[in-house]
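Practice record 12: protein with 6-O-phosphono-beta-D-fructofuranose.
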Amino acid sequence: MNEIQRVAVLTSGGDAPGMNAAIRAVVRKGIALGLDVFGVEHGFLGLIKGKMRQMNLGSVADIIHRGGTVLKTARCKEMFEPQGVAQAVQTLGESGIEALVVIGGDGSYRGAQAIQTHGIHVVAVPASIDNDIVGTERTIGFDTAVNTAVAAISKIRDTASSHERAFLIEVMGRNCGDIGLRAGLAIGAESLLIPEVPYDLDDVAEKIIRGVNRGKNHSIIIVSEGAGDIWQIADKLRSATGFDSRVTVLGHIQRGGAPTAEDAVLAAAMGSRAVEAIKRLAPGAAEPLSLMVALDCQVVVTRPLAEAFTGERVFDRELYDLAGDLSI
Ligand code: F6P
């Protein structure tokens, strides 16, 4: 194998604020290292359909602060089929591309792993609002989503207090309660229902009643989407407390918007690290590269992609308990 010359980058799965900043880093750092960088449109779907274009310094101008992804994204079920993977690999082969940077969540990591088994070097960059990727302390987009949730919940708090109501607010995160945990702690929510910790609705109801008796004029209950059906939870709490309540599902607002400085910086560091790893690959390396970029003790590192599938995600139980202690 000679030195790598052609690299492609794609964004895949749910978009996350900071994906553009990551694309920019891959393109600009890649060009600075002497690589030819190609952008694939619509994630793995675009790879299957052969939709890619060569990127230059100008292709990524003025995108660092923009939400979404200029390369577009898609959820691609074809990548779960051998035929889809083969087509994607064929596109890369026909374009002379030897390495692929995949910016996305855990579903996208599986696509990257499948491509790697066909001899293409892959480096995955964690980008998802959910913060649910094993092996990294942070995913790009998480901090922005938490801040978006906090801003929205603050507004709801005003009306909850004026009307003396309980508000149940659903946040995203799939099976991960990190958005709920951080946003809930930041906003001083009365209860946090998240998938990682079993809960008892009688306790939640009791806490609402205790609060009312103590003169509290509202309650904010955060329900992570993986923690159960918010409408059913609301019905149960309403009948257990008799307290007027409303439900707000924050939804996709959490996926949009400009990245926070924290996310933009993380994206710059992780995107650059991905192409550096490719550039550093020794010519003639026997095995195709299979890496993920990760944040480890606040340092951006690379580690085997396989760890994303074999390791265990660390849940911050202390932070959860603290939220409980502070919301009595
Ligand atoms: O993974 C990001 C995420 O926003 C999750 O929090 C949510 O469960 C899911 O994607 C929603 O997916 P879609 O936009 O495809 O409905």
